[in-house]
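DATA SHEET
Item: assembly model
Revision: 1
Owner: S.N.
Input lines:
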Amino acid sequence: MTTTITTRRAFFGLGGAAIAAIAITRSNPRTALGDMGTASPEGTPMAMGGAAAAWMLITNDGTDDDRLVGGESDIAKSTEIHEMKLVDEVMQMSPLPDGLPIPAGQTVELKPGGYHIMFLGLTQGVLPNTTYKLTLTFEKAGEVELEVPVYMSEDAHTDSLPDDAPEPVTVSSITITNYWTRMAPMLTDASPEASPEATPGM
Amino acid sequence: MARIRIGLAPVALIIMLALGGCSVSGDKAYTFQTGEVSPADPAPALNLTDQNGNAFSLADQKGKVVLLYFGYTTCPDVCPATLSDWTEVKKHLGDDADQVEFVMVTVDPDRDTSAKLAQYLSFFDPTFIGLTGTQSEISNAESDFGVTAIRQDAPDSAAGYLMNHTTSYWAIDTDGNKRLLIAHGTDPEIIAEDVKHLLK
């Protein structure tokens, strides 16, 4: 009694189980990084502007551990470091309050389904075939500036970017490769009528 | 205090997936490659409001296949990946795409206004449908379709709160049955092949 479910991305392997209503253990969200914005304790809805994510490989060639502690970009009001987990088909996302450790001699992968740089409150659409500026701050290596390319979803995975993948960037012991972002729209509170391209579905 | 919504599905969770996955109708030899629900399970009623403010009823979609996903626009990873995949599915469907509705129900009706849903969906494809409603209507829909959606406060993030939610989604067949359960990350070409067979 089996059902074959073929997945394209290995990390989303699925057992034969049906969708499950899973009791999710609430994480303990604390301080995220970067510009905190003006979130209220009640989580009052705010003008979000849309969200996007960046992924990359971060290698520490040094002998000392380092840590990604924050970031800033020119596409969003807030740049944070988040972890996503997929547990029994349920996506769980959490800000990383203490940043992301980059141990000496190791490469840390930020890729879909896992760690990502989270952009909140987009100030512009994140469009394919464009780039934007992202500055990441490491505890020891300091600031690393990236010009991040935006790809259509199907064109890119952190492990295999298109041919025009950006050059590695090295600052001190930290080298960042395969950095990219998936296209994402900026959202406003404008009425649907203000979005002429948003035509009704069938 | 955190407001937690848990969309527990009374029934959903005991869905028997297919034995060999043989199609009930149409091409008898075909084996579905996504998760087939067997026996086919009539989909619950779903009556919400689309991104243009119009009433949407799942019952009105009979004769078409409906891909039914629950997500939200502040989602940076899984939701845009799913919608991007759908644009690929649509390409693979070719002319059959006219017989398929791509529907995302927001799990975050507080933030996902019709305006935002309209902008969000049109970024991927203007024919995709985005549904919202009152919190109660959305919670009922989540429950009816066995979707987990939990609001997780993130007071120190600019997000304010995030939504943990189910990433797999349904294909409703032309008779209004929940027929396939599609895992996040499934190859769009495979999804399109299965959907084509639902249209036969």
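QC remark: The CA atoms of residues 34 and 197 of chain A lie 34 Å apart.
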